[in-house]
Amino acid sequence: MSEQDMFLSVPFNRKDELKKRYQLKWDADKKLWYAPNKKTYDNCALVPYHIINLVIIYKHKDRAKQLGARWNGSNWYCSKSQFDEHKSKFLSCVTDSDDEVEDEDEKV
Fold first, then answer.
1. The model's pTM
2. Whether the predicted pLDDT of 107 surpasses 80
3. Which residues make beta-bridge pairs with 7?
4. How many domains does the chain have?
5. Alpha-carbon distances of 87 from 37, 41, 92, 100, 103, rounded to whole Å
6. Which domain holds residue 29?
């Protein structure tokens, strides 16, 4: 991968079609598709997959996985949309406390 490459959100049921049409490549470490260069991405009708790197306390790894975090062998990460959706819950995975951070959206 180069700096010109962009991770993309590729629906599983369309991966073969889009791989062929846009010459997408698979990053086995991150388990994500990417466009091989900026020009391909500019012509591609796919949504960028923005990655948020996470520092997860080991005892909270299962909770983080349930929220959609992935482990690539050396780092935890998730998509920006997953992080935005569960921000307070992800934040509870980075502290040593067993308490979940209260979600602002869940307050009534």
1. 0.52
2. no
3. 34
4. 2
5. 31, 28, 9, 11, 8
6. 6-48
